[in-house]
Amino acid sequence: MPSHKPRGGSTPKPAKKCGCWFTTLSVLVLAFALLTPIYLYLDARLEQFYIFSPPQLHDLSLRAIGAHGNDTRAVVSYIVGELSEKLPGGYVNLDEEWIFNNAGGAMGAMYIIHASITEYLIIFGTAIGTEGHTGRHTADDYFHILAGTQLAYTPGSYEPEVYPQGSVHHLRRGTVKQYKMDEACFALEYARGWIPPMLGFGYADTFTSTLDFPTLWRTTWVTGREMISNLLRGKL
Ligand SMILES: *[C@@H]1O[C@H](CO)[C@@H](O)[C@H](O)[C@H]1NC(C)=O
């Protein structure tokens, strides 16, 4: 079949290159100029997007430990049960989908109770202990110890910070520590701030160390499902 396409040589070429890099740069500058005020506006109002609060979660953790002591499985059910009663409508994931997590050299497992753009709430821990770097995050992190003890270290100090069962380790946005759980330790971890930038820290060890892609996929699936379903119900 004969081709009716014009031959390559017959198409007129543009006189000169359009300076596309300049266009791209303009778009980037414009995007930056538009997004910065939106970011600053939202960042100053993050408080109004939160559905959990540190005093409420600390109180709940203490009551759960008071009711079930070292039966950590029951402590977790108590916490999740009460949260889902107080926050109906799917904000709380009742399905205990435990997933390994390697980050900052530490290894443990997590159960994602809630994940949205500005908050996450998980049970994080390990039955055999671990140690690593906390990561430098764009959110405040409240680690409510449900079982065991967590140690933390900041350069310049000669003594460990000790967080026993029932205490809260608050890692401020932007700060870092070394942390360790000598043996079994589980915590209700609550982060509030900007959550998506934290995911890089949660993923990096997969690429540099574990190459455990099924876990990476499961983490992405559960986190994405929770974040998107929360967005759809208007929860940033
Ligand atoms: C849990 O076990 C530890 C270690 O045996 C003990 O010190 C602690 O008091 C127990 N906590 C509760 C709430 O029973």
UniProtKB/TrEMBL annotation:
Belongs to the ERG2 family. InterPro entries: ERG2_sigma1_rcpt-like. The keyword Membrane applies. Its main location: endoplasmic reticulum. One of its GO terms (cellular component) is endoplasmic reticulum membrane. It is found in: Endoplasmic reticulum membrane. The chain crosses the membrane at residues 21-42. Keywords: Endoplasmic reticulum, Membrane, Transmembrane, Transmembrane helix. This is C-8 sterol isomerase. Its EC number is 5.-.-.-. One of its GO terms (biological process) is ergosterol biosynthetic process. It comes from Coleophoma cylindrospora. Pathway: Steroid metabolism; ergosterol biosynthesis.
